[in-house]
Amino acid sequence: MMMTSDWLTSRVQASPQKTALIIGEQQWTYAELDQKVNRVCARLVDAGVESGDFVGVLMPNCLEYVCLIHALARLGAILVPLKTRLSAAELQWQIEHVGCKLVLYSEELVDELSIVNSQWSMVNESWLDGDLSLTINNCQLTIDNYQAVVFTSGTSGKPKGVPLTFNNHFYSALASGYLLGVLPDDVWLSCLPLYHVGGLAVIWRSCLYGTAVNLHPRFILEDVNRALDSLPITLISLVPTMLHRLLETRRHWPASLRLILLGGAAAAPELVERANGLERKQLTIDNCQLSIVNSPLVAPTYGLTEAASQLATMTPAEAAQKPGSVGKPLLFTGVEIVDENGRSLPPNAYGEIVVTGPTVIAGYFNAQRITDSDSSFNPHPSSFHTGDIGYLDDDGDLWLVQRRSDLIVSGGENVYPAEVEAALKRHPAVANACVVGLPDAEWGQKVAAMVQLLPEVSLTESELLAFCRDRLARYKQPRLLKFVSELPLTASGKIARQEVMAQLADD
Amino acid sequence: MMMTSDWLTSRVQASPQKTALIIGEQQWTYAELDQKVNRVCARLVDAGVESGDFVGVLMPNCLEYVCLIHALARLGAILVPLKTRLSAAELQWQIEHVGCKLVLYSEELVDELSIVNSQWSMVNESWLDGDLSLTINNCQLTIDNYQAVVFTSGTSGKPKGVPLTFNNHFYSALASGYLLGVLPDDVWLSCLPLYHVGGLAVIWRSCLYGTAVNLHPRFILEDVNRALDSLPITLISLVPTMLHRLLETRRHWPASLRLILLGGAAAAPELVERANGLERKQLTIDNCQLSIVNSPLVAPTYGLTEAASQLATMTPAEAAQKPGSVGKPLLFTGVEIVDENGRSLPPNAYGEIVVTGPTVIAGYFNAQRITDSDSSFNPHPSSFHTGDIGYLDDDGDLWLVQRRSDLIVSGGENVYPAEVEAALKRHPAVANACVVGLPDAEWGQKVAAMVQLLPEVSLTESELLAFCRDRLARYKQPRLLKFVSELPLTASGKIARQEVMAQLADD
User: Does the CB of B315 have a partner CB in chain A at under 8 Å?
Assistant: First the structure.
């Protein structure tokens, strides 16, 4: 018997009355969610969606989005979550790249976009409360089917599509659960976007565990703080920027909180220490004040879209003892450090991080391959080369030295310099450009660019920034621009990135 | 990539320093256990054990047994756990039935047996501390391989071999963990024999979770109580008889205990209520006494060897609200109630319990089939007919009415022993009762009861029969009553119905 991929159906049978989702003041059980998903299924079928179709979704985190995730899975259609911050040109490219049959959007996000056409369909509350409902039991769907194609910033200009199977999510949820613990009353506060694997994974994980998600449209400091103080939140996923902002406002953690999963960028040991040092809420019982034992809370993690989120995670107790490491690879995940020739390196030697295991994708999206017979598409390759540099210590704990050469991580989002450089160079006045990440207290890193103009042209900073706004998502746009007559070069004639970084940091 | 079945290797990579096993005053980490398993592997290979061989094990619960379980899995050999209380003839039959290449035993268990021959090999401590060690990485082993053939008592004379795959255990562990919760510091007290699926499953579950097992040779009241009072036990598997005996001696549960998994026989609601009513240990902090909130602890479960242990389990909170039910089927497990023609029945109708899902075996051991090409042996049939009678209520909760083999048919009327037993147990002088059907010339079967009275009470047969007359239809009333000081029990602590039947038939 092949395992089903319609996990919501399995979950509803196992625990229909447990809370599935909490958004703001509202909450829904798994049975209630299931009913709404059946209505969404009817709408999708009405719109012509069939098993194997790619469906783009351009929406903020909301109930409708969660229902769409389950409904597409139930129909065997493949979710293509689109970043809400992309420019019209970026969106159009991704939609065409995978060949979306349909793009679903919520009104507020496409007001300014001129790309809505007959292929687009607006989702609103009526999708969840209509008279039509479709109960589907699709036995053909198995765990090896694709659940989503999530885009990551590419190193060579264009983003890459990461095709995640249900199997990838299944083993990610399992290994994460066994490592961090699962309790029947867990409530996971998720303020990461659902188009990010870190947000998407929380939905599947909680559905498999039968636990609740407290979903936020995005990280709004007051709302997250209010949820922490009013709901029995036990787990929360954060990127360092968010944790930083929470620490600025909170005097204690709620007693219910048992773990902060900290990913998306290298976590400074000081940040982890500060978060662990914040006291848990005190309880008062019969005039007797009881301090909850302040066991550490923060679990630093190293994740990749290509590995369905967490790859290695350190438990809070270990992280407090060994600050800076991201811990051991998850159960069934293998990590190897290799040199430039692909040879395996011993402990403590720096090299490229290579990962294997059931959460790792077979390869990037390739329109030709993915539509071929699945049997020719080996669902798991022997290994995935991350491009990130790190080492394994004597205990087998992983240390992340540097993200793929020049990757910039700003507010938890990956920005590949090549993509920003390509956009800059498209301006007719630009001869060359070099983009680097500079340290930033709030965002971790900020995007900075050094630009060499063609001779005898004139261009202002604001003109070039306006040019970027049409082509790049907001978080990718340079915060700092410097015009130079010539970019610094290395002896071999390549752009001297370290030198560019040093000069920009001086400014 | 196929999933490996060498879970100890995966576990050691993920958490080598976590505690794996606690026996008495000794404990071992996963890394330490792994080293011992490598030594056992060397011994097994030396004894000629190869992948695909069946290996009998006749030992009490001990470190050596746990090492053998992992070592056989690592070699791809199949464990045949032999009940320690069998007669020589019964053992011989089972060993020949599966065709064991080797039988491993510990000295104390075969003293009186005359069956030891060259096929038998004695295991002692030297197996764990020898110089020889074998590190094996057998990539050919997958989750679809057989882990063990466990014998169950057959209803029709000979025991049946239940071939369990790693896949069966994998999904059992997953669904159990997501239902009952997994915490990184869990310690599972296991006093069920390892030849019983309830004992065996705890080993695999804990290995996958990365948590600890506190293993007891068997249920020895003082030892179990001592462990509860000195170790941070969080979970314990018990059958009703064991729980009953614990309740007679304990004044409170330790604060660490979060769940009692109660299986192996129908749990009387009164027993569950008494166990839930026992207070948790009180903590004293700075002269301030704090009572731990007495949330319910007991999770009644309905398990089958044929489904790798739990099939349906009710969480403690639900069980306290709905005493008598065994709860909903586990995640990915399906339960249907069918009539005699195999037709599906609606809620609340009595019928045979039919189960589907990834924990369910493909069929009983059949020497011919199992040695054939595995591809012809469908690893999961569409359904398994349990032979047990029950119903699903409107909420989807399962109620176990009767194990079918015990059903008494008297004068054309169905009599469920459980109902008669419940009536007898309602008498204040009755401690326990077992009801069986005896052959009867006139009625086909007649109802017979063996009754254990509470100490130092007096009750006559006619008084108890009069008590029954008020509570049971005429055809359900016992025609034969026997008072005993103690009901006969099986090795795993269940009432030995066959023995009761034999004794009553003799009278």
Answer: yes
The architecture of the domain spanning B1-10+27-142 is 3-Layer(aba) Sandwich (3.40)
For residue A291, the chain B residue with the least C-alpha distance is B285
Q: Exposed, middle or buried, A202 (CB in 10 Å: 0-12/13-18/19+)?
A: buried
Start-to-end CA distance of chain B, whole Å, equals 62
Give pLDDT tens digits for A176-219: 999 999 999 999 999 999 999 999 999 999 999 999 999 999 99
Question: pLDDT for A134-179, tens place per residue?
Answer: 888 776 778 889 999 999 865 555 788 999 999 999 999 999 999 9
Could you tell me the residue ranges of all domains in chain B? 1-10+27-142, 407-506
By Cβ distance, the residue of B11, B178, B358 closest to A210 is B178
How far from A125 is each of A48, A101, A121, B468, CA to CA, in Å? 20, 22, 13, 61
Domain A7-385 in CATH: superfamily?
A: ANL, N-terminal domain (3.40.50.12780)
Using CB atoms within 10 Å of the CB of residue A440, give its burial: 0 to 12 exposed, 13 to 18 middle, 19+ buried: middle
- Average pLDDT of A232-247? 93
Below-50 pLDDT ranges, chain B:
154-157, 370-381
Query: What is the three-state SS of B312-362?
Result: EECCHHHHHHCCCCCEEECCCCEEEEECCCCCECCCCCCEEEEEECCCCCC
DSSP annotation of A251 reads S
pLDDT digits (tens, 9 = 90+) for A431-440: 889 999 998 8
Tens digits of per-residue pLDDT, A49-86?
999 999 999 999 999 999 999 999 999 999 999 988 78
Residue A284 has pLDDT above 70, yes or no: no
Hey, which residues 392-421 in chain A have their CB within 8 Å of chain B?
395-396
| Inter-residue contact A271 to A248 (CB < 8 Å) | no
Residues 6+ apart with CB under 8 A from B368: none
Question: What is the Cα–Cα distance from B215 to A270, expressed in whole angstroms?
Answer: 41
| Chain A, nearest residue to B210 by Cα | A178
pLDDT surpassing 90 at residue A3: no
Contact in structure between A451 and A482 (CB atoms under 8 Å):
yes
Quick one: closest CA in A to B144, which residue?
Answer: A1
Q: How far apart are CA B276 and CA B294, in angstroms?
A: 8
**pLDDT of A136:** 81
Residue of A233, A196, A241 whose CA lies nearest to A445: A241
B331:A208 CB<8 A: yes
Using the beta-carbon criterion (under 8 Å), do A180 and B178 form an inter-chain contact?
no
The string of DSSP letters for B125-162 reads: THHHH-S-------TT--TTSEEEEEEE--TTSS-EEE
Cβ neighbours of residue A394 under 8 Å, at least 6 residues apart?
A347, A348
> Do A70 and A38 form a contact (C-beta atoms < 8 A)?
no
pTM of the model: 0.83
Q: Chain A contact for B285, CB < 8 A? A: yes
Token match 């995005």: residue?
Answer: A218
Percent of chain A's residues with pLDDT above 90: 60
Q: Which residue has the tokens 């309602």?
A: B426
Amino acid symbol at A187: V
**Gap from A461 CA to chain B (nearest CA, Å):** 51
CATH topology of domain B407-506: GMP Synthetase; Chain A, domain 3 (3.30.300)
Residue A173's CB is within 10 A of a number of other CB atoms, namely: 26
Can you name the residues that pair with B152 across neighbouring β-strands?
B160
CATH of domain A408-506: 3.30.300.30
ipTM of the shown complex = 0.82
